[in-house]
Write a structure and sequence with these properties.
Blueprint: E1 9-26, E2 32-51, E3 56-61, H1 74-86, E4 92-98, H2 108-123, H3 130-140, H4 144-149, E5 152-156, E6 161-164, E7 171-177, H5 184-198, H6 209-217, H7 220-226, E8 228-229, H8 232-238, H9 242-251, E9 256-259, E10 266-270, H10 273-286, E11 291-297, E12 303-304
Helix pairs in contact: 1-2, 5-8, 6-7
The protein binds cytidine-5'-monophosphate (C5P).
Pfam families: GHMP_kinases_C (PF08544), GHMP_kinases_N (PF00288)
EC number: 2.7.1.148
Domain GHMP kinase C-terminal: 211-286
Length: 307
């Protein structure tokens, strides 16, 4: 069949929540050992990749001013790595439309890198095995492989080694974003500082069995009871106002709420879609977040939109 090279490729890519984030030892390479459960939700960035004279980046949407529009953007780095592998110039314009909170603990930068990898493989008609794409993704960042994969998955290592997790039905979320982001390395450093201050080490990385069986059963109340984020105390230590945000979501009737990844976005689990709409309406009125949205998961990972 004759295939036509598209003039531009558009990729849609989801945000992630960590339903469980167990943080273990600080490793010699500066990363922490993790045992995490990723869950992709229906907040998305849209990344458009178009042939250009040279590598350029533009960003629009919520929080766009906080995203670098130069070679330091993770999506631009993805283009450079992929072009080098293919022996070509990274001559592409990358246009990012943000729907994922910026520096919010929802892997927005990683999502854009995943979208660039997938879209440029298509645009440049590269023959790259999925496993190779996943390993390029892992080099770019710990969350990039999951942004490609989506769904619900257990992450090991620094988060880049994935095993799909069984989940039944949809989970419904209220997402409360903050105007000002938090730096992921700063939150991990704060966790290390809190451990040192208390003379305590990280907890053992135990398999999140209760969570995995709640997901397999599709039971939001059991999922709520089993959610855990070891980075939450560090995020709250750097941003004490998050305590109020979490309280407000629970007061608004959510089953429970946690900080997403390294924060500061807070995510609240609800029993169904209409419950989430009610919680979101009440939380919007509480004035504890810069934006409140509903979302559902799991959703697919990065996918080409203009097929
Ligand atoms: O992998 P990524 O570039 O997204 O990680 C950003 C930063 O978050 C790392 O440089 C490190 O400081 C911290 N991190 C960590 N342990 C992990 C993942 C991230 O300490 N497993």
């Amino acid at each position: 069949m004759l295939s036509v090279v598209p003039r531009a490729v558009v990729v849609r890519v989801p945000a992630k929540i960590n339903l469980h984030l167990g943080v273990g030892d600080l490793r010699a390479d500066g990363y922490h050992d993790l045992l995490t459960v990723f869950h992709a939700v229906s907040l998305t960035d849209v990344v458009r990749l178009a042939p250009a004279e040279e590598l350029t980046v533009s960003v629009r949407g919520d929080g766009a001013a906080g995203v670098p529009a130069d070679a330091s953007n993770l999506a631009a780095q993805a283009a450079v790595v992929l072009a080098r592998r293919a022996g070509i110039e990274p001559a592409v314009h990358i246009e990012i439309e943000k729907g994922i909170p910026v520096a919010g603990g929802m892997a927005g930068g990683s999502a854009d890198a995943a979208a660039a990898l997938l879209g440029l493989t298509r645009l440049w008609r590269l023959d790259v095995e999925r496993s190779e794409l996943m390993s390029i993704a892992a080099e770019l960042g710990s969350d990039v492989p999951f942004s490609l994969q989506g769904g619900t998955a257990v992450g090991h290592g620094r988060g880049e080694r994935l095993t799909p997790a069984l989940s039944r039905g949809e989970l419904h979320w209220v997402i409360a974003a903050s105007r000002e982001g938090l730096s992921t390395p700063a939150v991990y450093r704060e966790l290390d500082r809190l451990h040192a201050e208390r003379g305590s080490g990280p907890a053992e990385l135990e398999p999140p069995d209760a969570l995995l069986s709640a997901l397999a059963a599709g039971d939001p109340e059991r999922v709520a009871a089993a959610m855990r984020n070891d980075l939450q105390p560090a995020a709250i230590s750097l941003r004490p106002a998050l305590r109020r945000t979490l309280r407000a979501g629970i007061d608004a009737g959510a089953l429970t709420g946690i900080v997403s990844g390294s924060g500061p976005t807070c995510v609240f689990i609800c029993s169904d879609a209409s419950h989430a709409i009610g919680v979101a309406a009440e939380l919007s009125g509480a004035g504890v977040a810069s934006a409140v949205r509903t979302a559902s998961g799991p959703v697919a990972g990065a996918r080409v939109d203009n097929d």
